Amino acid sequence: ALPISSTQPASLCWCNMAERSVVTSRFLQELHDSDLRRLIEADSWKDDAEGSFLLLAFTTSMVTMVYFLRSSISAVRKYSWNMLGRTLVIFNAVLLFEVLRDLKFAVTQ
Q1: Which end of the chain offers a freer environment for a tag, N or C, measured as fewer CB atoms within 10 Å?
Q2: Is the dihedral of CA 8, 14, 18, 21 positive or negative?
Q3: 7 in helix, strand or coil?
């Protein structure tokens, strides 16, 4: 260990740092154990897993779409843009249908 000068505070002593490290690791282990117990008991990990899976699936599909849209093969680009355009048309048609249906329901009441 390095010698402590008179100007150095006692809290920077190597022995105090080692003790703090042990206390911190024990605290983190207890915190981890309590969180693990809470997750197992509450079954909230299922919601987290579903959200994680959806995020991963969405990211994968977006990366794949960009890969196909920027392909060096012109036929792949053409069909990818065609598929993306049709998907957007279907999405907008369903969205418009839902809005008009809700609007009709609001007017009739």
Answers
A1: C
A2: positive
A3: coil
Q: How far apart are CA 32 and CA 49, in angstroms?
A: 18
User: How would residue 39 be classed by pLDDT, with cut points 50, 70 and 90?
Assistant: low
Sorted by sequence, the CB contacts under 8 Å of residue 4 that are 6+ apart come out as: 10, 12, 13
* pLDDT score at 43: 62
Sign of CA dihedral 96, 101, 104, 109: negative
What pTM was estimated for this model as a whole?
Answer: 0.49
Task: Report residue 37: phi and psi, to 5°.
Answer: -60, -40
Report the chain's C-alpha Rg in angstroms: 29
